[in-house]
Structure formats: structure tokens, C-alpha cells
What does this fold into?
Amino acid sequence: MAKKIKDTDYLAISARIRAMETGLLTRERMEQVLEARSDDEAVKILQECGYPELDATHPEAMDAALAAAREATLADLGDSAPDPRYIDIFKLKYDYHNVKAVLKAGAMGTDPDRMLMDMGRVPAAELKEAVQSGELENLPARLADAIREAKEVLDTTRDPQLSDIVLDRWCYRDMDDVADATGSAFLHGYVKAQIDSANLRSLIRTLRMGKNADFLNGVLFAGGDISEDAVLAVSANGGSGLMELYGPTRFRAAAEAGAEALKGGALTRFEKLCDDAVGDYLAGAQFVPFGEAPLLGYLAARETEYTNLRILLLGRRMGLPADVIRSRLRAGYV
It folds into this structure.
């Protein structure tokens, strides 16, 4: 029988994470990058924080550098984490991304390599070969089942969007399985927050498109704290009851922005606030002295940091006003 992992098994890595948190980019440091007089100065500031040269004039190279930084962080903490499944929760989404890329490329007769991200549990080249050959036996069971269903949907409907929905549903199931297997209430809460965020996004988008509750029912995901039936009821009422449903939750600000979007406003702020609500949940890890929560919180904070750097550097390169860039940055951990 496998040894049961206890919170105290995380004492060493929790202490290390507390030290590593001091290297996260603070709001003040982000502001320095944003207000830098030149791209070279912005890059220099980030290099002082331990980042490689991030050149927004070559977005693909910049993305590759950020991906390498992400992979290095996961590998580093994976070596010392008592339970590697907490690392897997941040890797498995890339497996599903890569499956989407391979299936879409196959439908279009193109090469998926440019879209693949080698940051999942399964090496990207190995996963590509498995999807294309149909030999799925060596893949994680959930992922193999997801590929079979998504491929069947794509072959039947020729609609990549529907196969993507299938894969997203399996991805959340996979994450939920990991949370169940670890027995971590904090991880379960993180998965639930992501599902609630995804369902709120789907609700607002379908209402904006004038789609009915039956359509929404096909794109909602099970497993969140906010029931699917409650979300469908808001849809059936044309958006009435939105604030009553989300007002008492961490998604209040996102729902308010969603209501504005339904009146014709932009979706950008709404999307950001959905992400911020999930970040708000993870920020609670700062108040947990040891255990898996600090590890999860730190890894999620790094994910947000990479997203923000991309928004910031590309925004600067495009000449966007500083206030516009600020409005798009996700809420950070520090």
C-alpha cells in the first residue's frame, strides 16, 4: 500500500516556495516594465528578475522562451514535490491543447507542429503520433477516451468547435479525477473555480449570440460549485437573475462585467475578471503555512505571470496605451 502523504511532508517544499515567492514579479516591477522608455530597457528589467531575453518583435521566440521558463519551473518543483500529481494538474491541459491542434490540422490537411506545446504529461511528438495513428494504448486512460470521442465527433460533424468542447469536458473530468485521487480539498476548489469560470463565460457568450438554453446545455461543464441547472435558468430567462446567481460568489465582479457586455460592451474586461476570480481563490494559499496549497498557489501565480508578461510585452510592441495594457493584466499573487 502506498504511503499516505501528509501536510507535514510538504514542510521543506513549502519553505522553499515561500523563498521563491519573493522572485515573483510584483505590481511595482510590472509597472516598471510597462513604463520602460524602450523595449530594450523593459527586457533588461526582466533579465534582472531572472528571465531570458524576451523579444516581442519575434512573438514565437518569446513564447518559446516563456514556455521554457514554465517547463523549468515545473521540472524543478516536480523533483521535490511529495506528490507529482500536483504538478500534473498544470501539465494535463497542454495534452488536451495538443490533441486539439493535431485533430484540427488533420481535418485541414496541415501540419500541427507549429501549434504544439511540449509542456504536457506526454511528449508532444509522442502524442501527435498516437493521435494520428490511433494507437492510444500507452496514453493516460482519460486522455485516450477523450481522443476517441473527440475524433468521432469531428469525423461525424466536421465541426472542430464541437470536438474542442468534448476535449474541454474531458480535461475538466481529468482534473477532477486528480483532485479526487489526491484527496485535496484545496485542489478540488481550484478545479471547481475553473469550471464555474468556464460556465459563466459560456453563459454570457451564448446570450450575446442569441442562442437558447438548449444550446448552452451542450457547452456547460459539470463539477462546479454553481449548478448547471441554475446557469441554464438564467439563460432561459434571457439573462435575468444573473446577479442573483453570481452576486454572492467570488464571480460577482465578472458577472457585473458580463451584464455590461450583454448591453453591447466589450468582452475583454469580463474575460479578465473571470480569470481574476479564479486567481482570488488561489490567493488563499498565501495564508496556508504548509501543505499542497502553497505549491498550487505558487505554480498558478507563475502561470499568471507568464500570461501577464505576454500581454505587457506585446501590448508595448503594438503601441497600446499603458492604461489599456493595465486593464488587460490578470490579478497577480503579490
User: Anything to note?
Assistant: Residues 78 and 188 are 20 Å apart (CA to CA). The mean pLDDT is 87. The chain is about 70% helix and 0% strand.
